Amino acid sequence: MAQVIDAKGKVVREQETPAAFSGPTDGKANAIYRAVFRELANPRAGTASTKKRDEVRGGGRKPWRQKGTGRARQGSIRSPQWAHGGVVFGPQPRSYVSSLNKKERRAAMRAALSDKFQTGGIVVLDTTSLDLTKTKALATLLFGSPKAAKTGTRTLVVFATEELASVGTSLRRTGANLPRVAVTHTGELDVKDVVGIARLVLTTAAHDALVGKYTQESK
Description:
Layout: E1 2-5, E2 11-15, H1 29-41, H2 102-118, E3 122-125, H3 135-143, E4 155-159, H4 167-175, E5 181-185, H5 191-195, E6 199-203, H6 204-218
Parallel strand pairs: 1-3, 3-6, 4-5, 4-6
Antiparallel strand pairs: 1-2
Helix pairs in contact: 1-2, 3-4
C-alpha cells in the first residue's frame, strides 16, 4: 500500500497497490541487474588510452652495451620497466555500450516499481493545492522540518512529463538545495533511480501515468 500525502506532508489516506505492480517480483533480479548495468555502462565515454612501448617516442638507442657492465641487459629505455616507458596491457579506446531489448527493460522497471509499492517505499503526493516557493516548504513537506531534511531518508521526487512547466519547475527549483532530495520526471526515470533510492515520491499525475503505462502493457 502507498500513503497519500497532501501539500503539507500530512497523510490523508492509504491506497491499494495497483494491479500492474502487485505481481510477484521473484525471478526478476537478473533483469533488474542487466538494466542497471546498461544504464551505468552506456554513458561511459571509453576514451581511456595508454601507449605501448612501440608507441612511446624515443628509446631507439640501446642504453648500454650488452655485456661487461655488471648491470642487467637492456634494449630500450622505453621498455615497460623504465620510467616513461610503454604500458603493458593498458586501457585502449573501446565502447561500453550494452544492449537490452525493450521488453526486458520494461520488465525490469515494472519489477523495480512493484518492489517499491509492495514494501511501502512509494508515497503519492497530492498536488491539488501544492504551492512551493521556497526550499523550506519542500523540506517541511517531505521531512517534517528543514532540520530533519539534513539527515532524512534519501528521496526521489517524480513528476509527470506534462507537469514540466508547472509543478515540475517549482519542485526542481525548491529541491535544488536539498542534498538528500533529487527531482526528475517520468520520461527520465530509470531502473537505477528506483532501486538506488530509499523513498520514491510520485505526484498524482506521475502515479497515474506509470500505472496507466504498465497496466496497458500487461493486457
